Amino acid sequence: MNKVTFHHIYKSWALYILAMIFMGMPSACKKDVTAGAPEITSVRNYAASPADTLVNTITTGQRVVLIGHNLKDAVQISFNGVPASINSVLFSDTSATVLVPAVIPFPSVPAESLNTIRYITRQGATTFSFSIAAPPPSITAISNENANEGDSVYISGLNLFFIKQLTFAGTAITHFAESSDGTSVGFILPALSQAGPVVVTTKSGTATTPYNVNDDKTGVLCNFDNVNTFSWGTSTDNSSTAYPGNRGYYAVLKNDVLPAGDGTWWGAGRSINTNDVKWVPTDSLSVAVDDYAIKFEINVRTAWSGTSIYVVKGFSFDYLARYEPWQGADGTVTPFTTKGWRTVTIPLSMFRTNDGKGTAAGSLTTLLGATATGAVNIQTKNFSGSPSASGLQAAIDNIRVVKIK
After folding, report:
1. Alpha-carbon distances of 195 from 191, 215, 289, 363, rounded to whole Å
2. How are strands ordered across the β-sheet holding 95-99?
3. How far, in Å, are 23, 256, 270 from residue 382 at the CA level?
């Protein structure tokens, strides 16, 4: 009798435990289902109070906070169809801090993706309509600041799309081609009548260069024609067949493959050496070093991948600037040529110690001296420990120092 009673009690407890397990299983499934798809209700500026206000429009490169529900487990967030970088540490159920992509190719964004924030989690997805504006344009470089009528010219920068107006030295450019990512715009240069800045106006704002183009006077230290013609050390030419598309005379830099460490700049064709000139006005010596740049036009007709061009003031080698367009930031080498003449811009902050690889001067006075006067010397050298990968054949003209900020 006792044995039967024990068995009955054991079975009852077993059934009770199984019942509890099955009761728990629907509960767990129900929790997964009701977690819900994400929802965005508003967007805030990411900043310390009181600047962390709600916003109605955002732009590229802006850090924002998305407000809503079920935002914690994001797997992708896109702005105008462009995915943003995700950092899960900055996410909660009701907010998500995210950086809007720095580059959005607005002209190529499909109509259905414009002005949208797409938010995807493991539980679902939502599309939130919101104004995403292109930022104002910026100009970083002009392919040839002293181009001739009929030359192809390219303006490089950011957000160069939806262009409403473009002028080059005061002349309107009515036909141009924008790149899809907004980093350049190209055109055929019409006849020019004056010097002036480059001005690009888009739907989002206006960018103007702080310097003039088509300018043969401002800051010009040597043009091999009528401004401080070269003193010694190189040859000049005005042949339209050797380096076509130029105005007047230019200097020629040239050397064959150089032995390791060869810096005999005084060899034939190895240097351009001007008379003493004033690099910047004396009353500008107090401005930041990178406010000014040395510029010149260059024409490289054969593949160049080894010899370095460098620039020094006078014959003081405490600070020098290298020009090595064949040298990638990661150390890769890509043979370099130009299609005609191209403008080179070297900020004075690129004049550095240790053969151009050290530190910049702390001030313009340190770099240029109390009077900012001295020769401009542009020379060639092989800085490497092995023979240069190539020789050099290049023409240079219109050496100038201008304010770029």
Report:
1. 12, 5, 25, 30
2. 39-45, 63-69, 95-99
3. 80, 11, 11
Asked if 296 and 400 count as a contact pair (C-beta separation under 8 A), the reply is: yes
What does each C-alpha distance from 108 to 133, 181, 194 come to in angstroms?
A: 14, 8, 36
Q: d(Cα 355, Cα 352) in Å, to the nearest integer?
A: 7
Nearest to 72 by CA among 4, 119, 5: 119
Q: Return the amino acid letter for 327.
A: Q
Whole-angstrom Cα distance, residue 286 to residue 78?
Answer: 46
The answer to whether 215 and 247 are in contact (CB under 8 A) is: no
Beta-strand pair 250-255/235-237: antiparallel
Q: Full-prediction pTM beyond 0.85? A: no
Instruction: Kindly give, in sequence order, each residue whose CB lies less than 8 Å from that of residue 323, ignoring residues fewer than 6 positions away.
Output: 308, 309, 310, 311, 344, 346
**Strand bridging mode 131-133 / 57-59:** parallel
pLDDT digits (tens, 9 = 90+) for 285-298: 999 999 999 999 99
For residue 61, what is the DSSP state? T
Hey, what are 365's tokens? 């006075």
One-letter amino acid for residue 50 of the chain: P
Cis previous bond, 135, omega within 30: no
196, 202, 205, 208: CA torsion to nearest 10? -20
Strands of the sheet containing 82-83, edge to edge, are: 82-83, 74-79, 116-121, 125-129
Spatial distance between the Cα atoms of 261 and 385, rounded to a whole number of angstroms: 6
CB 184 within 8 A of CB 157: yes
Give tens-digit pLDDT for 93-147.
Answer: 999 999 999 889 898 899 999 999 999 999 999 999 999 999 899 999 999 999 9
Residue 364: CB atoms within 10 Å: 21
Give the integer Cα–Cα distance in Å for 271 and 375.
12
At residue 29, the 3 state secondary structure works out as helix
C-alpha–C-alpha distance, residues 68 and 81, integer Å: 20
How does the average pLDDT of the chain come out, rounded?
A: 89
The strands making up 376-381's β-sheet, listed across from edge to edge, are 271-273, 376-381, 308-313, 321-323
Of 312, 320, 146, 317, which Cα lies nearest the Cα of 219? 146
The answer to whether the beta carbons of residues 158 and 182 sit under 8 Å apart is: yes
